[in-house]
Design brief:
Helices cover 34% and strands 25% of the residues. By secondary structure, the protein is of the alpha+beta class.
């Protein structure tokens, strides 16, 4: 009886932890990722927006810091790319640098444009810096990673004034985008260490 009750409780609270969007667990699995809820964080509702969909949002229980996780598994995209590359009947050329294992930086730049506050008519990519390869490998088991800080587009987020975005890529696994939303840097710097490695590749 106790074991059955424990199982029932687990099934009930699991959606509360990770299931605000049922695609989150599927994306974790397909993207070959692990996620551990940071201490003193709770899930919050996903806010529909036209700029960037995401599968999970968590917020500090004590301070103004929200983190959003967007996972883009690569397996289906790679399969489609390879089918297109093998099909010579339609005469379309497929460029090697468009392969999902090669286009992560270009896609990241698009994500930055879509989620950042834009003031002019021409899109501007916020500045970003890549992590050192050995660091991103040892800390996230990723093949590439980068980060950028900017003011978020109002349609993406209107409560917080600042956004720091981390991108992670692992070949044949997934592209991951993590959005840290905050108002003051002191709060972000104090709370981020406990959450920075919450998501890693297997």
């Amino acid at each position: 009886m106790n074991q059955a009750l424990t199982t029932l409780i687990f099934l009930l609270i699991t959606p509360m932890l990770f299931g605000q969007n049922p695609r989150f667990n599927t994306a974790l699995e397909e993207g070959l990722l692990n996620f551990k809820m940071p201490e003193n964080f709770d899930t919050v509702l996903i806010r529909n927006n036209p700029d960037m969909t995401y599968e999970l949002a968590i917020k500090s229980k004590t301070d103004s810091l929200e983190i959003r996780y967007a996972i883009r598994p690569l397996r289906k995209r790679i399969d489609n790319f390879e089918k297109m590359a093998a099909d010579t009947s339609n005469g379309h050329k497929v460029f090697a640098n468009a392969h999902p294992n090669k286009s992560y930086q270009t896609v990241f730049m698009t994500v930055l444009i879509n989620t950042s506050l834009q003031s002019g008519s021409a899109p501007v990519v916020p500045r970003f810096g890549a992590f050192k390869p050995d660091a991103v490998k040892s800390e996230f088991n990723a093949d590439w990673g980068a980060t950028s800080g900017y003011a978020p587009r109002i349609t993406f987020e209107r409560t917080y004034k600042n956004c720091m975005t981390v991108a992670l890529h692992k070949d044949n696994a997934a592209d991951v985008y993590i959005f840290y939303l905050f108002n003051d840097k002191e709060t972000m710097m104090r709370l981020m260490p406990s959450a920075f490695h919450a998501m890693k590749f297997k």
